[in-house]
Amino acid sequence: MPAVPKHRTPIINAAVRLFRRQGFAGTGLNDIVDASGAPKGSLYHYFPEGKASIAVAAVEEAGLRVAETMAKLAREHRSAADLMRAHGRLYAGWMRKSGFRDGCPITTVLLELAPRNRAVSEAGRKAYGARLAILREKLAADGFSPARAERLSVLCVSALQGALIQSRVERSGAAIETAADELAAMLETAPRG
Amino acid sequence: MPAVPKHRTPIINAAVRLFRRQGFAGTGLNDIVDASGAPKGSLYHYFPEGKASIAVAAVEEAGLRVAETMAKLAREHRSAADLMRAHGRLYAGWMRKSGFRDGCPITTVLLELAPRNRAVSEAGRKAYGARLAILREKLAADGFSPARAERLSVLCVSALQGALIQSRVERSGAAIETAADELAAMLETAPRG
Q: What is the ipTM of this complex?
């Protein structure tokens, strides 16, 4: 069966879904093909270098999705603090809806493959870069200096990502909302500069 | 070859080391046996239920180690802020020393197996509980109310854990030190109560 372009996206989406739930090593090529509904030939057509190249595409795709979500929240909310609160509520809601099986779509893959796999690490760096840039801009608009905004953006991204893991283990969205809300409150009272 | 008790610890230590570097699914029983130096029979003797029960023991052992490290830092440092700074420097140093291959010893396993595997999730919850309790106590000693100390402890644990992932992807300890230092600075100026 000849590969058709329309199958690339379903393959990547299936990979994102499976990697976030069961990790890279725990997901077989057949699982991805089955979940995507694409013919097996299309997988080899689009990803001739195999599963690691699917991981790169999955990290890129998931990174874009997270950045889009954050950019939307940044437009909708006045301050970095309100953005954090909204992001926390959104993530906690998604986690609850998935029975706490989802989480950050790229964390597991990154932990399994970075820093060993350079292409996956590079895709991960870009995904982080996009999130950090959105937060940095918002923090600068809040009155923090560019240097301070850059540093605080690292803390914001880390706090949410770490809380997603705790939330998954505890089968509760509380950790995500708590981390986001406490960080938001401190950002509001932190001395500017 | 008969199994001897002395082999249990090397098996668990090898599992912690391998799981943190390459994940649970990416680690075979033979890898664990080879790395531990234990005879294969001892692995089946101590862990008759297989690899998942080794994961439980590895999460328990790694959780104890992290709690011990934190308890030591809590004794050595005056405030939760100083504890966070010291923890950040320590983690960043460990990451650099391992060529950024290490990281939180339990995160990858938890993401791969929780919440599906109840025993692993439960071991993860206990590991989190120990860290949170140490921070909670330190934050309460800093003058935060018990309820606030509990909430802030979630943020502290999340921030460091999330930063470890970013650090691994970026092959740099900067994210860990930045997240820890910025959180410490905000804890120092945050209104008590």
A: 0.93
Q: Please, which residues have CB within 8 angstroms of residue A85's CB and are 6 or more apart in sequence? A: A77, A180, A181, A184
10 Å Cβ neighbour count for A53? 14
Model confidence pLDDT, tens digit, residues B25-78: 999 999 999 999 999 888 888 999 889 999 999 999 999 999 999 999 999 999
Task: Give the separation between CA B91 and CA B97, rounded to whole angstroms.
Answer: 10
Count the neighbouring beta carbons within 10 Å of the beta carbon of residue A76: 10
Q: Residue A166: which of B101, B158, B166 has the nearest Cβ?
A: B158
Contacts of B24 in chain A (CB under 8 A): 23, 25-26
**Which residues of B, range 27-86, sit inside 8 Å of A by Cβ?**
none
Rounded-to-integer distance, Cα A10 and Cα A32, Å: 9
Tokens 């760096």 belong to residue: A125
pTM for the predicted model, two decimal places:
0.94
- Taking contacts as CB-CB distances below 8 angstroms, the residues of chain B near A142 are none
Six-digit token string for A16 = 């994102």
B181 touches chain A (CB under 8 A): yes
Residues 15-34 of B with CB under 8 A from A: 22-26
**Domains by residue range for chain A, with CATH:** 5-189 (1.10.357.10)
Residues B178, A155: Cα–Cα separation, whole Å = 7
DSSP secondary-structure letter at B126? H
CB neighbour class for B58 (10 Å; exposed up to 12, middle 13-18, buried from 19): buried
